[in-house]
Specification:
The chain is built from 28 helices and 18 strands. An eleven-stranded mixed sheet has the order 1-2-11-3-10-9-4-8-6-7-5. It has a seven-stranded mixed sheet with strand order 14-15-13-16-17-12-18, with helices on both faces. Keywords: Developmental protein, Nucleus, Phosphoprotein.
């Protein structure tokens, strides 16, 4: 009882977001790990150290998790972790006095205790792959008891189901079946014109032979050069390639936008316009103009040059306009037909009013963080509000701001990170969420049940926990059956989260539903009844890079009968030009028979050809950068088996172990440091003491290459001449290699089977 009471008290001291993470994952998000941060100003170091020690001593997560464990081993491990944290913080003052400490570093106990146990990391990886689909029964009981006590836990969505989307109050108000168009506007008549892209796309009736052709025959492709997007690849199976040209000027009235959007879009988008844009084209930037031209043609689109710092918000506004325009036109068509059905004479054939799918959701937006969903909703609201006098009614807006907004106090203080890091991780970065949005005329409903929603905004994890896995009793994916527009934004971030969630979604979208869900089959389009929805679905895919896994989704899971458009520009220089230290780069090519065998070939090449050159003590301070966690585990196990003097850091390594590993590596007590890409993605720490770099594989993000290389300047010890950098690559790494060294050097390196030596002076 004492432990239970203590755990309940600790629960009440946690924030809502911490309670949510505890219930769903049993641990904090990697971004929120509170490492010991110290200012470089030595005058402030002692005060900060005291405050950090207090934070460690009252760590609610560690103490609460300790109360949930009953085995003596678990309790002893927790006590050991707390003692290690205390030792790490005590050592910070020592490192700071030596002048070699940077924010977040520390030291701990003996080496045999310094790293996360292999079994624990393995279990964490399995836990991450499931990503929160299970929770501790005791914790659930505590949280249930807390709710009974009257504590507000509404911000924590129920896991594994969609019970949280039960806004019954507004159900009839937002029902498409029971509402009618307020007035037959000119816009409704315009939507019925043959030139309307929405009507052209959705009303086209495919034949069975065309479906068979798309399923069996390969796609034909053609190229085009656009002023802003650059090199485009158009591919299609059915249609002969019509030349789609970029409009130099766009008149909003010619885009067939739903009437309110014609007036609101220029106001909402004016923040991105500059004096460079022509007066006749005052509503779109050059990038938006070309992107929207493709979107409005209902072709699939893959744009791999999204940048959170420069064009990210431009792109977000463009696809929000397209998605909202689609929803408004579709709903207007249904409401207009409702009035016609109401006024029809008895016995009249109603087959002409087929205007719906098997389920209501039409647009699915996949975004990585809650902050992204918050911005999307704000854009949609802005596009719907014609002026200050005509405000739209938004249901559950207060709750939405509370759950998706960010708390300034939760941002870790004194963090110095690159600008792109700050842009990606701005605001609320929780990656487990989903929300339904219903739009009807001048009203908008947040937290609508999925089967009453027009737009669903979710993270891969959020949608994955609803879809469930085969064999689970509680799973649902019928709401994905009639998705007409799929938008996957910032796809590169999902490579750092869990790409399997994206693949799981693609396998369950546009399938026939298992239940009717009250649909009126006389209103369902024939394309949905024939299970041809996937051939009408438009997929918009935005990423910061080209990656084989992202390319695979676009090539294998997009079946749009209109065709696909992919932006395929090649990098001319590469990120190696941003390396500011004088450093010799040796690119060592390994041979592999196939893309499936390259993993084993890389490992064998490393232990046979590369590692022996670094075993000598003179090659100390060697950092090995490993993009794949599975390669990292394989190398770690091999290093332990060979009894090499090494330490390691990954995204699951505990705080005290990270501090110790960095300290041991800096002082040369450990010769090797295994370092994962996901840890660098979430933390961006500067690792001091590097003299030798080994890239076990080329980084996923090309700018990580220059960032890691530039870490060598963090410790100026006058040994610049001994710095080395070795990179392993194969012919299957062509895209990553081009992003690092440029397309010209890549062509030469792939043709030659010899090692390539490059020397970067910082001015290349």
């Amino acid at each position: 009882m004492g432990k239970r009471r203590a755990g309940r008290e600790l629960l009440r001291s946690l924030s809502k977001k911490q309670k949510k993470h505890l219930r769903e994952f049993g641990e904090e998000h990697p971004f929120y790990d509170n490492f010991s941060f110290q200012s470089e100003d030595s005058d402030k170091s002692s005060a900060e150290s005291d405050s950090e020690t207090e934070v460690e001593q009252v760590s609610g997560y560690h103490k609460l998790l300790a109360t949930l464990k009953t085995s003596p081993e678990s309790e002893s491990e927790e006590e050991e972790d707390e003692s290690e944290s205390e030792e790490a913080e005590e050592s910070e003052a020592e490192m700071d006095s030596e002048g070699s400490q940077e924010p977040g570093e520390g030291e701990g106990g003996e080496e045999d205790k310094n790293d996360v146990p292999e079994e624990e990391e393995g279990s964490l990886e399995r836990f991450a792959s499931q990503h929160g689909r299970e929770s501790t029964d005791t914790a659930e009981q505590m949280l249930s008891q807390e709710q009974a006590d009257g504590t507000d836990t509404s911000c924590a969505p129920r896991h594994g189901g969609i019970e949280e989307f039960t806004d019954v109050k507004h159900e009839s108000e937002f029902s498409l079946e029971t509402n009618f168009m307020e007035e037959e506007s000119e816009d409704c008549n315009a939507d019925r014109r043959d030139s309307n892209p929405f009507k052209q796309h959705m009303d086209k009736e495919l034949e069975e032979k065309e479906i068979e052709k798309m399923s069996t025959l390969p796609k034909t492709s053609s190229q085009s050069q656009w002023p802003r997007l650059g090199r485009l690849i158009f591919s299609s199976t059915l249609e002969k390639h019509k030349t789609l040209k970029a409009d130099k000027e766009v008149d909003v009235k010619q885009l067939h936008l739903h009437k309110p959007l014609e007036s609101t879009w220029p106001k909402v988008n004016k923040q991105f316009l500059s004096v460079v844009d022509k007066p006749a084209d005052s509503s779109f930037t050059s990038l938006q103009r070309e992107l929207f031209c493709i979107m409005n043609s209902y072709r699939d689109l893959f744009y791999p040059e999204r940048n959170a710092l420069t064009n990210g918000e431009e792109i977000r506004h463009a696809y929000c306009l397209h998605a909202l325009n689609h929803v408004l036109k579709a709903n207007a068509q249904v409401l207009s037909n409702n009035a016609k059905r109401r006024d029809r004479k008895p016995g009249t054939d109603t087959d002409e009013h087929r205007d719906q799918g098997l389920t209501r959701p039409k647009v699915l937006m996949i975004v990585p963080f809650r902050e992204c969903a918050l911005r999307i909703v704000h854009i949609i609201i802005s596009l719907l509000e014609v002026n200050d006098k005509k405000k739209i009614d938004v249901s559950n807006k207060k709750r939405f701001k509370g759950e998706f907004g960010s708390d300034p106090e939760e941002k870790p203080p004194n963090l110095k990170r690159p600008e792109d890091y700050e842009a990606v991780f701005a605001g609320n970065i929780d990656d487990h969420f989903r929300i339904g949005v219903a739009i009807l005329q001048r009203s908008m409903r947040l937290y609508a049940p999925f089967y009453s929603s027009d737009i669903i905004i979710a993270s891969p994890l959020g949608i994955r926990t609803v879809i469930g896995a085969e064999g689970e009793k509680k799973r649902d994916f019928d709401f994905l059956s009639s998705i007409e527009i799929l938008i996957i934004d910032q796809a590169d971030i999902y490579l750092m989260q869990n790409w399997e969630h994206v693949l799981h979604l693609m396998k369950h979208i546009n399938l026939l539903p298992l239940d009717s869900h009250g649909v009126d089959f006389s209103r369902v389009r024939m394309l949905n009844l024939n299970n041809w929805s996937k051939y009408y679905r438009q997929t918009l895919l935005f990423s910061a890079l080209q990656d084989p896994q992202i390319n695979s989704v676009f090539n294998k899971h997009c079946f749009n009968y209109v065709g696909q458009v992919a932006v395929r520009n090649v990098p001319l220089t590469g990120s190696i030009s941003h390396v500011v230290v004088q450093l010799p780069h040796v690119f060592r090519r390994l041979e592999a028979d196939s893309i499936t065998s390259v993993i084993d070939a890389r490992f064998q090449f490393f232990i046979d050809k590369v590692l022996p050159e670094y075993r000598d003590a003179i090659m100390s301070h060697t950092l090995i950068y490993v993009p794949s966690y599975f390669d990292y585990v394989r190398l770690r196990n091999y290093f332990k088996k060979e009894d090499l003097n090494f330490t390691h850091i990954c995204e699951y390594t505990k705080k005290a172990a990270v501090c110790r590993a960095r300290r041991f590596f800096l002082k040369g007590e450990k010769q090797f440091l295994l370092f994962t890409e996901r840890f660098h993605f979430y933390k961006r720490y500067t690792i001091k003491g590097i003299r030798n770099l080994i890239f076990y594989e080329l980084p996923t993000y090309s700018h990580f290459y220059s960032e890691i290389c530039n870490m060598l300047k963090a410790t100026d010890s006058g040994v610049d001449a001994t710095w080395t950098c070795t990179v392993l690559y194969s012919k299957y790494d062509a895209q990553k290699l081009a992003a690092v060294v440029g397309i010209d050097r890549t062509a030469q390196m792939l043709q030659s089977k010899k090692n390539v030596h490059l020397f970067v002076t910082g001015e290349n």
